[in-house]
# Entry
Amino acid sequence: MSEVTLRAENLSAGYGRRPVVEAFSCAFRPGEVTVLLGRNGCGKSTVLRALGGLLPPLAGRVLLDGEEIGAYRPARRAQLLATLPQGRDVPDITARRLVLHGRFPYLAYPRRYGPAEQARAEAALRRVGIPELADQPLKRLSGGQRQKVYLALLLCQDSPVMLLDEPTTYLDIGCQLETWQLCRELAAQGRTVVAVSHDIGQSLRYGHRVLLVEGGRLLLDACPGEAAASGALERAFGVRVRRVDNDYLVVAP
# Structure
């Protein structure tokens, strides 16, 4: 896996002419899981959309492998960067067919899925533990099952940069921990993994770095231990964060 860097430089982004995120600068490093934390509406998802090229900057720039992300053709950008958005339509196709879409950026004309693509899709479905759902229509699946299908799509795309917006949505606690462990394994392969989360404890446990976003600005960029000790998370969320036996306990004030 070739290492690909992702960087935001003085980024401002929003909807229409109204900035939601301002003066956001950060380098996201290969081999790390970087987690964006913050209250609802603070701008986390807006940052992720701008990093993925889904939202053009109002100011500043996003650099993917040293080039502005808007300069890439869609297929090439998809080869380098995969995004798991939070809100998605549910197409009327099977789980296998959706996961196969991850290989589309790599196909040459006439863009037909062959045995190699089918094998990758099957492997991705097995990796997230749902091979038996391959031929099930997405519309018949539960929210948690669909979330696993979209994670399999991300794996099938096999990009060196992966952006995940609330990847544990709809998942039970066991599947949540499996998903975070998967993020760590992807980073260990040299990928750049960036995830938005609301779970402080899981973010501190599985993230290599924690970014705290508040009011559309980057308030904190630190390793989990430093982030927990800084008091910034407690002030932002109004909770207490305690370290217990190399893990983190988040409790009400």
In short: The longest strand covers residues 18-28. The chain has nine helices and twelve strands. Residues 6 and 67 are 9 Å apart (CA to CA).
